[in-house]
Amino acid sequence: MLANFFRTITALFPLWSVLVAVVALWWPESFLWYGKDTITIGLGIIMLGMGLTLKVEDFHRVWQRPGAIGLGVILQFAIMPFLGWGIAHLFHFSEGMAVGLILVSCCPGGTASNVVAFLARADVALSVSMTMVSTIAAVFMTPLLTKFYAGEYVPVEAWALLKSILLIVVLPVFLGVAANRFFGRAAQKVSAFSPFVSVAFIILIVGFIMAKNRDNVMGHWQELTAAVTLLHLGGFTIGYFLAKAIGFKEMVRRTASIEVGMQNSGLGAALATKHFPTLPMAPVPCALSAVTHCILGSLAAGFWRSSANKAKRNSTA
């Protein structure tokens, strides 16, 4: 009974994302308590929960398919920066908004994509692998692509970026996989509630980012919302159908779609704040991106999860 209740709450992820964004803009104080440091902790807990559902064999199977990993990483850095540049020109953005949109489009896939892959019944091990590889590649690709498309050079601290992915993604997943291997029965019981925990932390992160950037978001919300939505919709759509055209199976299509469509918006916001201090609008597209891709990703996850449940019921009927 309790497990069914949590599954129902988890399935309403898209609704919670929208409600939290609205509340955060209307009453920022309700989410400002959830600060930067707790975002890192929350993401680590999310990744630990997903690790509890994985086995060593899952990663061995993924690394036997380098083509699938390469697909996600190549599409990430080929599609999104070009879309960001094109949309900035389409909307005739000011320098600050254009640089922010291009910057976030040049970032690697974010850890939220792993969560959405988990909720969408996609290939979580593949998603985690794509995120790791794209984040390592971003040490070089993000500054080069930002310089190419935005005409500016954005230095990236390679060790800080690598340390973050190790601490937030690799270490918690490793601990979860180890727990699943050595304490399988207990891990299985805990993992039954991990989707709910994932949703709870995601909406806290969404609420904090929206609350912190409320004034800038409200001042330019129409054009920014349209541009950021177009950016991520393009990534989700192109990622899925290119994977389909190449001949990958449905699980890989979903994973590629999610990985391409969702960016590390937190990294984009941090880089924009640090490296473009004279452009106060630069971090705003990154902040809005964090909310938008979570909402779009949750909608996609809800649709795919429902499809998977329906297919399962039909197969057992």
List the main descriptive attributes of the protein structure presented here.
317 residues; mainly alpha; 16 helices; 82% helix
Describe the structure.
The chain has 317 residues and is an all-alpha fold. The protein is built from 16 helices and no strands. Helices cover 82% and strands 0% of the residues.
Write the layout of secondary structure elements.
Blueprint: H1 2-11, H2 13-26, H3 36-51, H4 56-63, H5 66-90, H6 95-105, H7 111-119, H8 124-150, H9 158-182, H10 184-191, H11 194-212, H12 214-219, H13 221-246, H14 250-261, H15 265-275, H16 283-316
Helix pairs in contact: 2-11, 2-16, 3-7, 3-9, 3-11, 5-6, 5-8, 5-13, 5-14, 6-8, 6-15, 6-16, 7-8, 7-11, 7-14, 7-16, 8-9, 8-14, 9-10, 11-16, 13-14, 13-16, 15-16
